[in-house]
Amino acid sequence: MVPNQTSTRPLAAADADRTEPGSWEAWLAARARVRAARGMQRTDNSRGPLTDLASNDYLGLGGHPEVVAAAAAAVHAYGAGAAASRVATGTLPVHRELERSLCRYTGRAEALVFSSGYTANLGVLGALGGPGSLFILDAHAHASLIDGARLSGARVETAEHNSLRDLERLLRENLDGRAPKPRVAVVVESIYSVLGDAAPLAEAAELCARHGALLVVDEAHSLAATEHGSAVRAAGLAGDGHVVVTATLSKALGAQGGAALLGGEPAGLLREHLVNTSRTFLFDTALAPAAAAAALRSLDLADPARIGRLAHNAQVICETLAGHPELRGRIERGAGAVQSIRMPGADAAVAATAALRERGIAVACFRPPSVPDGISRLRITAHAHQDPAELALVLETVARTILEVES
Fold this sequence. Notes:
The protein is α/β, with parallel strands linked by helices and 407 residues long. Helix content is 48%, strand content 14%. The protein has helices spanning 5-19, 23-38, 65-78, 86-90, 93-106, 117-128, 143-151, 164-176, 201-210, 231-234, 267-277, 279-282, 289-301, 304-322, 325-328, 346-358, 388-406; strands at 51-52, 110-114, 133-138, 155-159, 183-189, 214-218, 243-248, 258-262, 331-332, 338-342, 361-362, 364-366, 377-381. The strands form three sheets. It has a seven-stranded mixed beta sheet with strand order 2-8-7-6-5-3-4, sandwiched between helices. The chain has a four-stranded antiparallel beta sheet with strand order 9-10-13-12, with helices on one face. A two-stranded parallel sheet has the order 1-11. β5 (183-189), α9 and β6 (214-218) form a beta-alpha-beta unit. The chain starts with a helix and ends with a helix. The model is unreliable at 1-17 (pLDDT under 50).
């Protein structure tokens, strides 16, 4: 029998691609050229001695003497790492203490600590997913939420950013469909990482309750950084059993790690479900004891006074930059620590970031594909420990540098 020549050629070509020496190197080089052409090349520069307007250490607790001392004491007590997953021998007393403290701080009934905020999101959505689940994600959801939803096996839909109307449309379409998913979760961020705007949590929770859906809220940018220390608590949802919270310990708390925070009557049952089914909890080495101890001490220091200073410095950023008429209409005031300036394009954003670095100032540069609306921005991050007068002087340099780059 003569083989079908048309059907065998693609296979032969594919085999040649797989075995040709240097094919990986050629592919990597091609990807690098594409990134360069699109202005998407990034580096892993260290911040060094620069004035920090870029990091997520919102309350300045990462280097606080008491936080550092707590981390050092944990190293001496437990060693450098946890040495096992939480379900093996990796759960240490400091993990339990941290979970209890997180519950007290946020008003939630149960907590489960993960090795990072990213693994918390992957773990929670993975445990809630499956063929019978539908996840409705806000269009500006963080990459970790998108990855967790896609990996979960659930059907995934996207709602227009902060649109309760579009969210309700998708919830109704599921109920009215031929094969409605019995389990639905709406996935949002309390404060979004790009625009810095806040989600309408109370209204979203009420809408979810009417449709029997969970509301999953990522508090990465609001835990210990907003009023009441938690956006979910501020919205009056701390005791709501249909609201599931994830958070990171690496931003306002200046440490490392992540957590799931659960409320209401289902909290214990849901925690048990996560312990038994969350792959990033089951198969990942537990959070290092030094990081857990640091986060624990940071929670004690993340009081209303510090959070108030953070909010004041965020206001200083917006008001100082708005003093320049050329920038006034481009400032996007965030609900938390991060404030943004829209830039004319990726090249201008990269050039301004580099020029500011040369002048001793670190700012964050966000450009496609990291921004969902395709607009390049400089992100200016407020910190509670910075002197407002000194901050205003630095911001004058920021404004002048942006305008010089664009002239």
